[in-house]
């Protein structure tokens, strides 16, 4: 479902949800990187939840999967369902146990999207993993406080603080 390719290969750094990698034979290969936070693996995979729209960008930092949400408005039911499937697949299919969801781009979030976050949190916890949210804009953070989700979910101000939780 995603790939991280080094710039020295002349490829885009991330391929997400349905983009076709430049190197289709590449599966898994570790490499040393001078990239920030020591990006440690290259993975490509094609799975059932492919889409042409980029909803997430995934990066591996020090053994933690950092998922950057790319949509400003997470409101549409179909997009929320597709986003949920992509996020759930990271846990269910890829076996990810350490996850950070980075919300810096997100300006609007529906209650259905909150439901997907709760479900993802339960999946990660059931797999004996940990999920942290970070870079949440003030208005959305207020929704987390009003709904008391800030007491259930671990929320950090920025990515460095979120990485420190692992």
What does this structure look like?
This protein is α/β, with parallel strands linked by helices and 166 residues long. The protein has one domain (2-163): STAS domain (Transcription Regulator spoIIAA). 28% of the residues lie in helices and 25% in strands. It contains four helices and eleven strands, in the order βββββββαββαβαβα. The protein has helices at 77-92, 111-126, 138-146, 159-163, and strands at 2-4, 14-16, 28-30, 41-43, 56-61, 64-69, 73-74, 98-102, 108-109, 130-134, 154-156. Strands 5-6-8-10-11 form a five-stranded mixed β-sheet. The chain is globular. The relative contact order is 0.13. Residues 1-52 have low confidence and may be disordered.
Descriptive labels:
166 residues; alpha/beta; Transcription Regulator spoIIAA; 5-stranded mixed beta sheet; two-stranded antiparallel sheet; 4 helices; 11 strands; 28% helix; 25% strand; globular; disordered N terminus
